[in-house]
Amino acid sequence: MPIDQDKLMDFLHKFVGDLGATMAAGNVVVGERLGLYRALADHPMQPRELAERTGTTTRYVDEWLRGQAAGGYVQYDPQAGTYSLTPEQAFALTDPDGAVYAPGAFELALGALKAAPQVIDAFRTGSGIGWHEHDDAVFSGCERFFRPGYAANLVSGWLPALDGVQAKLDAGARVADIGCGHGASTALMARAYPNSAFTGSDYHEESVIRARKQIAEQGLDHQVTFEVASAQTFNGGPYDLVTSFDCLHDMGDPVGAARHIRQMLAPDGTWMVVEPAAVDTVADNLNPVGRVYYSFSTFLCVPNALSQDGGYSLGAQAGEQSIARLAADAGFTRFRRAAETPFNLVYEVRP
Ligand SMILES: C[S@@+](CC[C@H](N)C(=O)[O-])C[C@H]1O[C@@H](n2cnc3c(N)ncnc32)[C@H](O)[C@@H]1O
């Protein structure tokens, strides 16, 4: 087949953008760690001033700034020789509590990519890679990638969208947050509902240890406990609310988890399932958000599911029909989509 030069140029254009973005991931993490974005948010400055303010070296900062400006992450004024951040760039690059925090997402990506050799092997053998086998940056990056979305939506939108749940939480409810990782969602709920008691659980011991430390630092440990347990075996109950944030699709046996959740719920309890935004057909997921999730899923979600018993590997773009089917298979009788954001779908599942 002859090569169409225009189509080739289009593709090369895309490839160069992606290659720049891939290297930019490391540069974003560097910029965050060294406080470069935070310092630059103050006022426009030349590389020397930014280096002085951050205790770094001008030559490195200069090169970093040029790459950042070429990528549209900072502004450059050639007359003054200064660099700056727009309010929008500062919002996404310097505020970990804002609705979008790009450095956390890039930390997750860099951490996940370290598993490339194991993923290559796994493609050949079909074996799995457990969440616990990844680099530490995956655990902290995951927390910092997801937490802003939870902070922006969980208490203000998602929980109120569930039938009768907010009133129970206000009055004092028992809540289990399964697959909780570092417990970002657990902490947000505990702070908002001081009369309720929360048990976070995750099969990954290191994450649970970290969650305990962070909850104590926030002074919420009287209200929240964390245990090392899988979604298929977690303890306690009956719970008024069980939550699963961005973890159901990671499990090898999500139906087993759903069955166990049903047993642990009070008869009028609710399971809130938060999953990545996706639709039911592959073709309709072929967009930038789908690309992000499918690509993370190849390195993280599918390998983790394949590392566990159960025979499932839903992947991060499972779609509503798959989740509804597994809830029905586990004996739940009511299922509805309660809320959505560009990155997440929220389902209300009831016995
Ligand atoms: C993408 S992370 C999400 C963590 C957290 N819920 C959040 O939103 O930040 C997926 C989590 O699911 C946990 N996980 C995977 N399989 C599990 C299982 N079978 N039972 C319990 N947790 C599991 C992992 O250890 C990891 O912490």
What does this structure look like?
The chain has 351 residues and is an alpha/beta fold. 50% of the residues lie in helices and 16% in strands. It has 15 helices and 9 strands. Strands 5-4-3-6-7-9-8 form a 7-stranded mixed beta sheet, sandwiched between helices. α1 packs across α6, α3 crosses α4 and α8 packs parallel to α10. The longest helix is centred in the first third of the chain and has 29 residues. The mean pLDDT is 97. The site of S-adenosylmethionine has 23 residues, from α8 and α10.
List the helices and strands and how they pair.
Blueprint: H1 5-33, H2 36-40, H3 47-54, H4 58-70, E1 75-77, E2 82-84, H5 87-94, H6 102-113, H7 116-125, H8 136-158, H9 165-171, E3 174-178, H10 184-192, E4 197-202, H11 205-217, E5 224-228, E6 239-245, H12 254-264, E7 265-276, H13 288-299, H14 301-306, H15 320-329, E8 334-340, E9 344-350
Parallel strand pairs: 3-4, 3-6, 4-5, 6-7
Antiparallel strand pairs: 1-2, 7-9, 8-9
Bound molecules: S-adenosylmethionine (SAM).
S-adenosylmethionine is lined by residues 131, 142-143, 146, 178-181, 184-185, 202-204, 207, 230-231, 245-247, 250-251, 304, 308.
Question: Could you write a compact summary of the structure shown?
Answer:
This protein is α/β, with parallel strands linked by helices and 351 residues long. The chain is 50% helix and 16% strand.
